[in-house]
Structure formats: C-alpha cells, structure tokens
C-alpha cells in the first residue's frame, strides 16, 4: 500500500497497525481492511488544516514526532522523491542525458529502499505502549462543569474531566465537539445540530446523556482507543469507529 496523497511508503501505529502515516508527506490514513486504506481528513475544531494539530493527532494515535521530507526531482520526465536538497542539486549539476537520468534514478530508489528498511526496524523498536507512556492517565484532571454557547466548536484534551449541561448548539460547518488525549467529557441534555457531531480520538471517553445529535455527515466518530457511550440520546447520522480500541455503544 502507498500514500493516497503522494504515493510514499507508510509507517504504522496501533495494536493491529490500524493507523498508517506517509513517511514523506505525513498524511494520515485509516486501514479499513487488509490491503486498503482511507485518507483521514484531519482538521482543527474550526475546520482549518493545521500541521501542528495534525502532528498532535498523529502522536495521540501512537506515531513518533517527525518532519515531512518530500522533495520531487524531475529526471527524463520521471518524478523521483529525493530525501534532501543536496542530493537534488548534485544530480542536476553532474548528470545530463536521458540514460544517465535513469541510472541515477535507480541508485536513488535503491538507497531510499535501504533507508526505509532501516527506519522501519528503528521505529518498530521505539514504539511503546501509548496507554502507559504516551498518554496522560484518564480522569486525573479536576472535574468541572463548563458552559458552551453552542455557536462555535468545543474541544477538550489532556486529562480534563468536563461536563456540559442543557446546551442547544447549532453549527453550519465543522465538527461540534472534539475530545482529544485522555479527556473525559459528559454531555447532559445537550442538543447538537451540525455537519459532524462528536469526534473522539486518543483515549478520550465521551458520555452522551439524553439530548440529541443531528448530523448530515458523521454524528459520532471514535478513533484509536476512544470510547463514546450514548445513554438515551437520539442520534441522527452515521457513526464510525476506527481502531482496535475504538468503541461506540448505545447509539440508535
């Protein structure tokens, strides 16, 4: 399998390698079934594409921090991905002609393949249990009841323990609620109308007591080890659980 965005190779995370990340452009993918991946559109609660937010989501899924390293070099009509600007400059200065271009392309591809194998075994040895060391312990924050105006997206993270009560929210774009890290969020009597309702990642736990979620897209999404428990709320829209520990219960 290769990246759906740039064609680069993958690195994997998760107990069953259910998460994939391109080692070149760092695009995140979900392994929906063996041999098939789906590009994950990661956006901030306000709907923006933010590399720092994407990096935080990738770390929550179990990936080690790294920088994007994609450089494309044209040789004889062929686009070759080269890891450094220095290699690109040297090749352009020293190589001329179609035949030599193909020879250098073969050498670069061979070097990248060796580096990829070495990196794979290195990252495999570096990955640890994210629950034990990569995530804050669930429920260690001080419980608090917060107010939400229901006009803009709401998000919680780290080890927060948060309750929102009796709010009616109407949003015309983006995801209404984002629970990240090890946040424990309770929605008590909250009514949400938005393109996407709840998005839970990492080891977050969301409890929906009463109220309703009405969505034209995905009403509830759980990724990684996140869990969403619906208790008597009316759910309108799709639900999606991606990851070995992801779970959605009680949604009807």
Please describe the biggest sheet, giving its number of strands, its sense, and whether it closes into a barrel: 7 strands, parallel
User: Secondary-structure element sequence?
Assistant: EEEEHEEHHHEEEEEEEEEEEEE
Round the mean pLDDT to the nearest integer and report it: 83
Helical region count? 4
Explain this structure to me?
The structure is a single chain. The chain is α/β, with parallel strands linked by helices. Among the domains are: 71-115, no CATH class; 132-249. The chain contains 4 helices and 19 strands. Strands 8, 10, 11, 13, 14, 16 and 18 form a 7-stranded parallel β-sheet that branches. It has a 6-stranded parallel β-sheet with strand order 7-9-12-15-17-19, with no helix packed on it. A 4-stranded antiparallel β-sheet has the order 1-2-3-4, with helices on one face. The protein starts with 9 loop residues before the first strand and ends with a strand.
